[in-house]
Structure prediction request, 698 residues.
Amino acid sequence: MAVTLKDIARACEVDVATASRSLNGAYGVRAETRQRILDAARRLQYRPNRIARGLVTGRSRTLAMVVGDIRNPFYAELARGVEDAAYRAGYELVLCNCDLSSDRQMHYIHSLLEKRVDGILLSAVARLNSAEQLELSRSDAPIVLLNRPPGGARGYSTVLADNYRGGWLAGETLAGLGHRKILLLAGPRDNGNLAARETGFLKALQARSGGAAPLILRAQHNSEGARHALAEYLHARAQRRRLPAAPPRGAFTALFAVNDAMAIGATRAIFEAGLNVPLDISVIGFDDIEFSGMLRPPLTTIHQPKYEMGRAAVEILLRHVGKPAGWMPEHRTMEVRLVMRESCRALRA
Amino acid sequence: MAVTLKDIARACEVDVATASRSLNGAYGVRAETRQRILDAARRLQYRPNRIARGLVTGRSRTLAMVVGDIRNPFYAELARGVEDAAYRAGYELVLCNCDLSSDRQMHYIHSLLEKRVDGILLSAVARLNSAEQLELSRSDAPIVLLNRPPGGARGYSTVLADNYRGGWLAGETLAGLGHRKILLLAGPRDNGNLAARETGFLKALQARSGGAAPLILRAQHNSEGARHALAEYLHARAQRRRLPAAPPRGAFTALFAVNDAMAIGATRAIFEAGLNVPLDISVIGFDDIEFSGMLRPPLTTIHQPKYEMGRAAVEILLRHVGKPAGWMPEHRTMEVRLVMRESCRALRA
DNA sequence: CTGAAAGCGCTAACAA
DNA sequence: TTGTTAGCGCTTTCAG
Prediction:
């Protein structure tokens, strides 16, 4: 059995209250007594039972983060930022993967609330129906939406990258390099972040004098989805022109993929079609996952400050602990920036 | 204030004990009464306070995993396996990143024990001094070492990939392809897993008739470390032979990096030196992180079943919950296998 | 089948 | 400065 406060109180011939005070607040107790208790605690290897403490204080010193899949390097980087910030503040982090399952997401949220976590970071993309939304809103623990557009769920704090501006930057970059025939490799329409990037990109092209509307190809927002979709597209084009052997050139000279995973898949498809990046096609992505810099060619992309986003979300969350639900939601938009690497080249005019 | 068992007991005009029984064990209570209570619970949105329950049962239904850095895709995959298994068993997972800091590692372990987690998975590589080892051994919660050789810490259950055999496989593969001049890109000597791979590799080459001892280059076990070390080596060779422009060929025709991150860094260094993989140098790695298959060329590597390792570790851990400390440690060695992709080629004899 | 009562280990008024 | 007294919300004997 573990040694309890009572044990150390008995050993020192004081009351548990005195022992508790010595170990915690520390003031309102004679220095000598306090020392005696501290010594006994160390000697007996006393480990306070935080769960008992939690029961009375109502706080667990635990935060939770719900993500889609921690194997996604984007989430991993977010999570690391979250965890470091939590650690510094003296909190632990419980991690929940729920993929796209809103069932699993709700299951977690229930468990977390039952465990009285002090706050929840919601990064997963699983949609919630209105019953679930309602349930969330009654949550005692503060919730911040991290990289998850509110989507009907008003009233929560949010931390988001400036996706629109990132898309714009991508458009500017490609157009500035002289590209006119451009492919937009877009994701599912119902993803708010991806949609914002798309919009920003389109606007940037429109704003450019003579900016023609790009081709739009929609795919799953992962490598395989992008690779598959683009491969099919390139193949179909070759067929149509009866160029079974020769790869199609000239349909577009640049491509924007709304995230790096898609950019990676697209790059593969391009090489597999016998074309070259950036000689035949320039590629620009979005996210700047660590891996992007290690590709051949290193990927030009829009960087979002994932680690800092995690940190910022924890700061907001902690500011809301103990506050009434729905207390002054904060909205933080994080800056993005272009990272020029080698997958884009300028077109000679 | 949250609704408690007492509230629902009052609403149903029964005792809290009856309410508790109805909500849990469910037997020993009249069906009609039980139903009434269940209904009330739903109606009042009752959420049991698990921390109160934990105080009496002594279980928290929480597991913890201590890793180096979740951004490392290897850990992420392990973690996902762990989390899925925990989820299925009705547990939550707290995730702790401690890099190489044994301070942070110990800090976590203390917190976790104070929070009465039901078990701890140790994957981090931070070394523990003997005082820390002693402390660990007195832990009430079971501990399993996941991908972490016991290194003096006997008595714990372990889950490890068959690193030795993986190294052997790599050696066999290269030798079987006809390579004779081989470079071993090794990691720090004090890493047990990496050292086992190294040993296996060396043995395989020795076992081959005419297998010459490979060159050994030691580097940090990450991409940049490997890239740097290999670049320097290639450069120095070029200098020595007064071939500033022409890249050095022929010193070795194949290379084994003891993990994929290193293989990736090495591949970069090779291309940056103007050489080609696999034409000039074949490369084989270890781990089979997801990314390996998306490289150009896709990396040949030794696959370890990371996800399954995570799952296996949880199974063992759960088997030990509630058992006395040091109870029948289990040791599980997971099989590895060769994944042949395009970074290795056969040498014509 | 159900109620009463004790207690998990700790904190926090309130007294002394 | 210290001890006493109540709980926190739940489970779990033990009676009834």
